[in-house]
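INFO worker-7 received task bundle
INFO bundle size: 2
INFO processing item 0
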Amino acid sequence: MNPSPTKPDIATPDDIRLLVDAFYGQVRVDPLLGGIFNGAIRDRWPEHLAKMYTFWGTVLIDARSYFGAPLRPHLGLPVEQRHFDRWLLLFRATVRAHFSGPVAELALDNAERMATLFLERITLSREHPERFIR
C-alpha cells in the first residue's frame, strides 16, 4: 500500500501565487463575500492579486516586497463577524487543500490574528471615526 503523498509547505513565490489565486478564486464567487470584494475591487483584480502576492510573500517567506498599510482599505467595508468567519473558513480550506508544514501553519495563525485585528479596528472606526484616517 502506498502512503498518500505529503503536501508541500509554502516555500516559494509560486506557492504564494497558488495560495492567493486559489483563495481569491473562491472569495470572488462566494455568496457572502463575493459582492463585497467585487464591489470594492471592481476591475482591479490583477492589481489586488499582485498586492496580495507581495503581502503574503513578505509575511510567509520573507520576500520583503510588501510596503503598505493593509488595514486602511478595509475600514469602510460593510463587514462584520460573519464575513470574517467565512473569510477564515475559505482561507483555512485553501491552505489545507494545497499545503502542509510550519509555514502553512504560520499562514493560518497570521490569518486568524489579522481577522481578529481587522474586525476590532473596523468596529472601532465605526464607533470613533475621528480616530481613523481613511
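INFO item 0 finished
INFO processing item 1
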Amino acid sequence: MSKETQFFIYLIERYAEKKGSTANQVLHEWDKLELTDFIYDMYEIYHVERLQNAFDDIDELMLEKQACGK
C-alpha cells in the first residue's frame, strides 16, 4: 500500500471521527461531491500540515461544491 493511500485512510478515518460519522459515510459524501480524487491528490500538502488544517480545507471544499449544486 502506498504512503498516499495509507495517509488517505488515516485522514478519512480521523475526519469521520471528528464529524461523528463513519469513513464509509464520509467517502460516500466526498464521492457524491466529486472530491475524493482531489483530496487524495492533496497528500503532499495535507500530510505535512496540522490535521485540523486539512479538515478545514475539506470543509471549505465541500461547502463550495454544495453551493454550486454539485
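INFO item 1 finished
INFO post-check item 1: The first helix runs from residue 3 to 19.
INFO post-check item 1: The chain has a mean pLDDT of 95.
INFO worker-7 idle
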